[in-house]
Amino acid sequence: MFVSEAVDPAPREPPEERLAARLETTPTPWRSGVAHALHVLASADKAAYRAIAGTPMPTTIDEPLRRLSNLANESKLWLGIAGLLFVFGGRAGRRAGVTGAIAIGVNSAVVNLPVKYAARRKRPDRSAAGVPAERWVDMPTSTSFPSGHSASAFAFATAVGGTLPALGFPLRGLAAIVAYSRVHTGVHYPGDVIAGSLIGAWIGTATMVVARRVRRRTHR
Fold it and tell me: Could you tell me the domains of the chain?
């Protein structure tokens, strides 16, 4: 249930490029403008990926980012934090941990099934882009858009932060580092992690709101 990346054997072109191609088949002034904007967006995404790959960075950050990225596989990092909150966080911590875990489950069902299947974007070619081998983690077999790691990270951080506000800032900061690590290690384009982060934040907010309403009704 909490798998961060789903398998899709038939990746396709980036969603923005595919939508642009569809718009170009029936040209009108507004459709042509949207198609052009989507092409520009796809090109900018790939250019940003190559720029990050080619930017010299201290090698001392490569191993920590690799480890953090791997730790977030299958949401192990977030479920571990949820477990700590449940055991040591008292009543508020238990409530926050459960809400965060539910958000991860909802996120997995939404992102790893319909969204990834609909987009089916190919993973980046990190060798061609020049991503240093020291940064590499195992390339997932799933499709690239959106980033499941980023979505899970922000779903959990948003749900827990909304339930236990003192943890909101540090968890969102950790989620942002996890999201960046997916680009740094070469397994996602920047657009993938941005989209995943936004989707995850929305799911985390919705989960937190629903959980709050359920608690209010049960305590009437």
Answer: 15-218 (1.20.144.10)
